Amino acid sequence: MGQKINPLGFRLGTTQNHHSIWFEKPKKYCESLQEDQKIRDRIKNYIDNHRVCSYTKRILDIDIETDYISRIQIEKVRNFVQVIIYMGFPMFLIKGKPHKLNELKVDVEKVLHCGNRNLTISISKIGNPCGDPNILAAILTQQLKKRVSFRKAMKKTIEVAEKMGSAKGIKVQLAGRIDGREMACVEWLRKGRVSLQTIRTKIDFCSTTVRTIHGVLGIKIWIFANGES
User: Fold this and answer.
1) Which part of the chain is the Small ribosomal subunit protein uS3 C-terminal domain (predicted)?
2) Strand-pair category, 80-88 with 118-125
3) What is the pTM of this model?
4) Are the CB atoms for 57 and 130 separated by under 8 Å?
């Protein structure tokens, strides 16, 4: 049987970089790693709970919500912690509500192990949101929650990535009780070339879940981005 490996970890040092950048003593490594996860959870929960539904963007006949998180990068140097939130369509935290960033900073400071460290949070807009697998997974999740046919939602997600994201190839996979089937199954669609065995190819990957009326579905998206190292 084939042995599966995360395509991001497989390419660390070649086409992918770490999302957490810091050094720690071996005894404190686990504590610092858990702190990173708590920071990311706090940020995601805050943005999900404070997202304004009136901010939407229409792409290929799909009303897409704004403020989707692509990734969260954490850098630690002694008593300084810098958090960079890479987002697609960042409307809520940038336009008209700068005080929300201060509220987010106060909320994140509660999970820091040492309270005397300086924390800075900044937001960076990614250049090609429709070419990011995390944002495409959020678009697919949004369609599934609206009870759109899973195959139609997968095709629409691929169409968005192809026309707006300029990807060389994309693969979308759903797993679980799709459409309320009695037994769990796996359905996938692929468009273009997705070379997973070549390390120098730039593959972006996302794995997430979505809650539907029939249960939890797993979503995986692979994108073969332009450019090779």
Assistant:
1) 141-223
2) parallel
3) 0.84
4) no
